[in-house]
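Narrative of accomplishments. A recurring question from our advisory board has been how the design workflow behaves on a single, concrete structure rather than in aggregate. To address it, we present the structure tokens for one chain from the evaluation set, followed by the sequence designed for it. No filtering or post-editing was applied between the two.
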């Protein structure tokens, strides 16, 4: 009876004195022990952690650099111009932020020399002379070239182009055009045949890659400014290709050429897009026009252009939401923006890495923009191309050829790094050299 009473009292104490906090747990355990319970909780805790609530360890706070204190030895220095770690106010356009324009000359204004190998060196290195030489050894004598004489060499050329990421269909068309231009020519020696084929291929590639419309953006910009209106450039493309970053590179280059730029945040769809563009604007020291999220991007762009006109800006760079080419609502919104605002240049931003996928994306964008335009006679499609990550593809430059060949749009810029200065114009002869060897 005494044991039963003790057990009853022990149960009662366990209910009434259940610990509400971790500090009260010791008293609860003592009550159980004193009441003659069968379990010694202090020993049980030492054997097992199961069922015991513990506070999770607090994450260690990241050590932020102290202002004015140099970084520790060996620490990796990140490019300051693309650092998103520091939050900034929307209107923090200070003189210090504007100093980004003096960080270095944009590579857009740098001239690059391209050295060509002669036939002997290219033969040794496996270039055009090397793989073509064996094909033309049988072509001698002062007789007209026949299709059969050229087809083996052009088949080899087609394979070479495809290894450089040129689409098969485009490589086939290119080789066929060379054959058509050379059949019937009389070339007395094997060496002259090699030279003629190389020259014909170079001319065909240069014809494709050389812009059919003016790509003198600064000249066009000043001509437009003379009319009292700003030059408007809209950046479009699929998700994740770096539209905002490359827009900032273009703004940096324009700023170095004394162009007064306004950025327009018309990606009102993706969370964080406005803040990302604001970071670029602050670091560049240029103003940003924004209306937040869930607004009609066409209306935001129109208001930005109106502000630029009133306040004497030379150019408006319009950032848009990344969208897959089969996303109907977003493609309709993009078409509306272009139809309503009539930009001077619609710039397609694509990755040099994706190869033929980029060609498909560009073609589909053009097709959807044409289909959605209310007036077929006034259709506006892609006017120019910006290829990002061009520094990562080595000699696999075929995407540049494929995108230009299929769309007729020139490559106005290539991105070649992570800083604002890392933007270049396309060196057409450099591309031809990489393709032909």
């Amino acid at each position: 009876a005494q044991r039963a009473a003790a057990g009853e009292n022990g149960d009662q104490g366990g209910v009434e004195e259940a610990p509400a906090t971790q500090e009260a747990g010791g008293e609860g355990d003592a009550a159980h022990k004193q009441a003659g319970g069968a379990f010694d909780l202090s020993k049980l805790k030492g054997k097992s952690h199961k069922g015991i609530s513990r506070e999770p360890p607090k994450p260690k706070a990241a050590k932020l650099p102290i202002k004015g204190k140099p970084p520790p030895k060996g620490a990796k220095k990140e490019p300051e111009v693309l650092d998103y770690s520091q939050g900034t106010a929307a209107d923090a356009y200070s003189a210090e932020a504007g100093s980004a324009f003096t960080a270095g000359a944009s590579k857009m204004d740098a001239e690059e020399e391209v050295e060509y190998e002669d036939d002997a060196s290219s033969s040794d290195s496996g270039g055009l002379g090397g793989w073509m030489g064996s094909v033309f050894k049988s072509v001698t004598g002062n007789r007209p070239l026949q299709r059969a004489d050229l087809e083996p060499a052009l088949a080899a050329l087609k394979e070479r182009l495809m290894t450089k990421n040129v689409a098969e269909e485009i490589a086939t068309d290119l080789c066929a055009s060379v054959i058509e231009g050379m059949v019937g020519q009389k070339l007395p020696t094997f060496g002259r045949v090699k030279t003629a084929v190389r020259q014909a291929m170079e001319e065909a590639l240069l014809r494709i890659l050389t812009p059919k419309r003016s790509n003198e953006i600064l000249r066009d910009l000043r001509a437009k400014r003379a009319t009292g209106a700003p030059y408007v450039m809209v950046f479009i493309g699929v998700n994740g290709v770096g539209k905002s970053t490359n827009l900032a590179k273009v703004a940096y280059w324009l700023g170095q050429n004394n162009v007064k730029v306004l950025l327009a945040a018309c990606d009102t769809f993706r969370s964080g897009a406005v803040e990302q563009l604001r970071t670029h604007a602050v670091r560049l020291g240029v103003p940003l026009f924004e209306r937040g999220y869930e607004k009609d991007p066409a209306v935001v762009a129109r208001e930005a252009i109106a502000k630029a006109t009133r306040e004497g800006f030379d150019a408006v760079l319009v950032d848009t939401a990344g969208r897959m080419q089969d996303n109907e609502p977003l493609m309709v919104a993009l078409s509306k923006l272009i139809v309503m605002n009539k930009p001077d240049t619609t710039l397609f931003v694509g990755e040099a890495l994706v190869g033929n996928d980029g060609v498909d994306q560009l073609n589909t964008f053009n097709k959807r923009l044409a289909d959605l335009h209310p007036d077929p006679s006034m259709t506006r499609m892609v006017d120019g191309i910006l290829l990002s990550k061009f520094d990562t593809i080595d000699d696999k430059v075929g995407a540049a050829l494929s995108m230009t060949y299929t769309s007729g749009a020139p490559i106005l810029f290539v991105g070649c790094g992570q800083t604002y200065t890392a933007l270049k114009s396309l060196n057409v002869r450099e591309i031809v050299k990489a393709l032909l060897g």
